[in-house]
Amino acid sequence: MSGAPDAQVFPQRGLEVTRLSTFTDAAFAFAAALLAISIDDIPASYDELIEALRDGPAFVASLAILLLYWRAHQTWSKRFGLEDLGSVLLTFGLVTVVMIYVYPLKIMFGSAFHFMSNEWLPLSFSLDTSDEFRGLLTIYGIGFIALNAIVAALYLRAWQQRESLAMCARERFDCISEAVAWLIVGSFGAVSILLAWVLPEERLSVAAWVYMLLIVTGPAIGITQARLARRRLSDAD
């Protein structure tokens, strides 16, 4: 998510493949497999194949979210190469949340595409009451907050090791700004949960669609990071 200038020139301290990175990659791959189309029921006819393929948009969107967090951890791991106890526990925490988050993630995207397609795209999950929908939004929001908070904590963990990692001033600033950026993104989960429980039933869908604001907010955060980094560097000069 880094918008700092020349973020790619920072030292790559973790290029060596380790057991921790291998475990993390395998865990994310397994989580992706859980999203797969018709994982429990291989189509036996053309109609069943078409029905299974209609689940494709929700699968692709869910997979994209998983890849976002996999890429975030990979970038952090390559930059800092940390495998101390704190970093290992945070990585295990990330993997744990991802494994739990898979099903709410697929359900949320399935519901969204079901609605946008005027119910043409399938939805195998049903909700009977508005309170159940509020519960789903809460479960999803908690997972979303946790994922972003853990990525932020990983960058804060690296910042705590700034002396031993011999970080330059630019890298220290980038490390903190990354942590703040992930926390800002995670705050959308909190907003969604709040809206889920305060909005009336007829406006409850707003609590789900609030995540769409990240399409604009994400790039805006990157641009702000870059501007702040340039300002900080110019002030240092």
Describe the structure.
This protein is mainly alpha-helical and 237 residues long. The protein is 71% helix and 0% strand. The chain contains 8 helices and no strands. Helix 1 packs parallel to helix 4, helix 3 runs parallel beside helix 5 and helix 4 packs antiparallel against helix 5. The longest helix has 32 residues. It starts with 18 loop residues before the first helix and ends with a helix. The model has no long low-confidence stretch (mean pLDDT 88).
Quickly describe the structure:
The protein is an all-alpha fold. 71% of the residues lie in helices and 0% in strands. Helix 1 packs parallel to helix 4 and helix 3 runs antiparallel to helix 4.
The ordered string of helix (H) and strand (E) elements is HHHHHHHH
Shape type: globular
Range of helix content: over 70%
Measured between the Cα atoms of the first and last residue, the distance is 26 Å
Tally of individual helices: 8
Mean model confidence by pLDDT: 88
Unreliable stretches covering 5 or more consecutive residues: none
Secondary-structure-based class equals mainly alpha
The largest sheet is: none
- How many runs of DSSP E, i.e. beta strands? 0
Fraction in beta strands: under 5%
Radius of gyration: 20 Å
